[in-house]
Every structure is written in C-alpha cells, then in structure tokens.
DNA sequence: CGTTGGTTTGATGGTTCTCAAACTAGGTGG
DNA sequence: CCACCTAGTTTGAGAACCATCAAACCAACG
C-alpha cells in the first residue's frame, strides 16, 4: 500500500526519506467509513485533521431549501481541514461519496509536523494554494461553460489529479449522477443527457456505471482544459 | 487616511500598536493606478506583493474565446498575491476595475513581516482562509441560485466586507454592468434586466450608476445570505 | 458635434429545469 | 426462488431562464 499523502506533497516540495517515513507513521491511524457519511459537519470545531487514503469525499453545503452544493472533490492524498485551527468552526461539511479510508491526525501532531518537517510544511502550503487555484478554476468552469464542457472539464481535472498521485488503476470514476449533478450545479436529469451525449461522441466510455476516458487529449481539447492551474511538475 | 490593511487583519487577529505601526510603514509605498489596468498578469512571477488601499480590483482569467471570468473582487485592505512565492507563476491575472491606490511590498519585507510579527502573520493566514471560504460561497452562489439572487448575494457580501474594514462612506458600488456580468457569469443584457427588477422591488437603489442598498436585512433575506462564511467577529 | 463607453429595450432562440414516468439492478424477506 | 423494494438511470414533454442579436439611447469628452 503506497502513501498517497506523500505522493501528493511531492508534487509541491521535494521530500526526503525521513519525511516520507514520518508521513507513513502518521497515516497509520485510519478508519474505514461507508459512503455518504460525514467526516466533519458544518459548525464543528474538530480535534483531528483528516486525510483521504482511499475513496472520494467532498466539501459541501446544504442550502435552506435542501439542495446540496458540492464545492470540492477530495481524492486520496488530500487533506480535509488543515485550516480549522485558525478559523475555529467549519463553515461547511465534509463527507464521503464512496467508501473511504480516512486518516486522522491530532492537532499536536500536525503542529509538530509543520514545525519540525519544513519540507512537509512547504508541501502543505503548496497543497492548500493549489486547492484554492482549483476552486477558482471551478468558478470559471461553472460560470462560463456549457454543461457538457463543464462535465468534460471536471473529468479531465480528476484524471490528472489521480495521475498526479500515481493512482494504480486506470482512471475510472464511480460517482452517481446525483453526486455529479450536485458538483456541477445542474440537475440529475441533465447530467444524464450530458453523459449520453459525451458517450455518443466517443469522449467518454461507460461500463458498470464507471466513467472512463478513452482519449484524454481529445477530452481536454473539447473542454478547453489548461492544466496550468494544477501547478503540477512538468512530467504530468 | 486610515489603514485598511490593519483594519482587515484585525478581524482575524488582535493587532497591537506596534503591528499597526509597521503596517503603516509598509503601506507608505503605493502608486495610483487607473481603472482597467493589470496589477499582475497571468504567467508573471512578480517581485512585489500588492495590497489594495483604495478602489476595487479583481482576479480574472481570459478564456480562449475572449470572454473574461472574474473570480474574486478585491477591496481596500485585501492582499493580492501572498501565495506567489510558493506557486511561482501566476495562473491568473489581477487588474483594477476602478481607479486604485495599490501598495507594493517587497518579498524580503513580507518575509520579515511574517517572521517578526506573529500577530500579523496570523491575520494573514486568517485572511487567506477567508478568501478561500468566499471562493467556495461564490461557487454555491453561481451553481445553485438564479441570477437575481446571485446579484443580491454578491451585493450583500460586498456590503459586509466594506463594513468590516470600516469603509467611511455609506456603501455604494460603482462597477459597470459589464464588470458585474463577468463576475456573475451572465451577460450584460441580463445584468441590466436583473438590476431593474431588483430596483423595482425596492431591494436596491440606483443613482448616478451607483448601487446602494436601502435595507440590507431585506436583501439578505431575499438572497438567502448567511454571513457565517465571512468569519467576521460578532459585532458585524 | 461627433465619438466613445455604457445603459436600456425588444425579439428570438437555445440551454437547462421541472414534472412525470418507465426502466434497471441489487438486496431483502417470505 | 420469487416478490418486493429501493436507489439509480433513462426517456419524454413543456416551461423557465438566460443568451444572442440588434438597435436606440444617454452622458461625458475631446
């Protein structure tokens, strides 16, 4: 089992063996969570910082009328809540979408990590800035593109993010259409129509409710995807 | 002339006189910039960190087809590019929307500030996290609300953000309809229709192309505005 | 006094939502 | 093993929202 946290941070900082060893230790405390379960809820002031080791989670808010808005997808290697120590309470929730393995690290351990492991601290800093850049690109995506391009753009991003942590299997996405709808801000019905359209154009493939990408370059061109905002090292 | 940077940071940290004095010094280097001018352009690796002292600026990207997407509005007290030292190159541009006074602070000065003034450093850290929270709320706003609510929500946010730095004049917004359109991801024509509708409902007032808010509570209710995400101290 | 940038208004069309219902696959209990 | 139930997917018809295109209007400015 590889350490996806270390792999992710390695994109923004050059870690040494001692760094990776420490991360391996910290990541040893984890628990399995079923799909659709909150890791942290809005209003919490949690004691632990969490990292996703396996599965897909999301940041989300529930609107007054009951709709859910997903503002970020968290994949293996992603931290959930590094910021909570400063802001105090959570202004949104974090929950699993698929079954997940979630590591929990105590606040003192995080403090120690940031103080004593400067390369890791730099990687964390880099990581949170990339998260912000992703958020900005989502804003562009939702504001300016039609929903088929939106969907394609999201898939391109996930493809690259999974690749950046060296996801072992070929990329395949097992989210439900409702989860995709809440992410893109469109209805389930329309997600369905967009997916069938993309499938008919040969841009994606669908087997057992899993989306795969036959030709990433083609999908990137279709969605005007520019990977610049992910700030990945050149080889990706 | 008050120091809006200090006022803003005071919302997230308790500054002392020495802190404010240092900020006063740093902010002394500024230049006036006309409207519609880039402070930093995409691809730059700038030498200075900038802060808005007066006027309104924005983060934006230009899409391949020429459209502009505004992803953040920067008001007096806001820093533009604290993150650039880590990420290297800018993945978006920052430009003025109205005439601005912009302070520029050298990288060594910023380093010193973060090292030697821990309360300021904490305020900066808080500030960047709030920026991220604002970005998330914009995503919710654009994804889930109709354009009249979107507009109202944006106006509520700006009202509170200006209030949080103690903006001297009563709130009034002097952006063009095109600038608002690029921010909300809708067309100029539709901005026009939304504005007249809000005006007819008495939710906003319009004089000399300046939008004012007669009753903020009413506008907040209309747009389902929950100020929680701004993480302001209770008095606001 | 023409030019320019911005606002306002109208008509039409496309994208996406809403409502409604059928269908599929997996799981559970009789 | 089958009947039922549930969550998720698929399809259709009509309406709402917003975009597009086009043109008039207005104020500031040289």
From TrEMBL, chains A, B:
<dbReference type="GO" id="GO:0003700">
    <property type="term" value="F:DNA-binding transcription factor activity"/>
</dbReference>
<dbReference type="InterPro" id="IPR012318">
    <property type="entry name" value="HTH_CRP"/>
</dbReference>
<keyword id="KW-0805">Transcription regulation</keyword>
<protein>
    <submittedName>
        <fullName>Helix-turn-helix domain-containing protein</fullName>
    </submittedName>
</protein>
<dbReference type="GO" id="GO:0005829">
    <property type="term" value="C:cytosol"/>
</dbReference>
<dbReference type="InterPro" id="IPR000595">
    <property type="entry name" value="cNMP-bd_dom"/>
</dbReference>
<dbReference type="Pfam" id="PF13545">
    <property type="entry name" value="HTH_Crp_2"/>
</dbReference>
<dbReference type="InterPro" id="IPR014710">
    <property type="entry name" value="RmlC-like_jellyroll"/>
</dbReference>
<dbReference type="InterPro" id="IPR050397">
    <property type="entry name" value="Env_Response_Regulators"/>
</dbReference>
<dbReference type="InterPro" id="IPR036388">
    <property type="entry name" value="WH-like_DNA-bd_sf"/>
</dbReference>
<dbReference type="InterPro" id="IPR018490">
    <property type="entry name" value="cNMP-bd_dom_sf"/>
</dbReference>
<keyword id="KW-0238">DNA-binding</keyword>
<feature type="domain" description="HTH crp-type">
    <location>
        <begin position="145"/>
        <end position="217"/>
    </location>
</feature>
<dbReference type="Pfam" id="PF00027">
    <property type="entry name" value="cNMP_binding"/>
</dbReference>
<dbReference type="GO" id="GO:0003677">
    <property type="term" value="F:DNA binding"/>
</dbReference>
<dbReference type="InterPro" id="IPR036390">
    <property type="entry name" value="WH_DNA-bd_sf"/>
</dbReference>
<keyword id="KW-0804">Transcription</keyword>
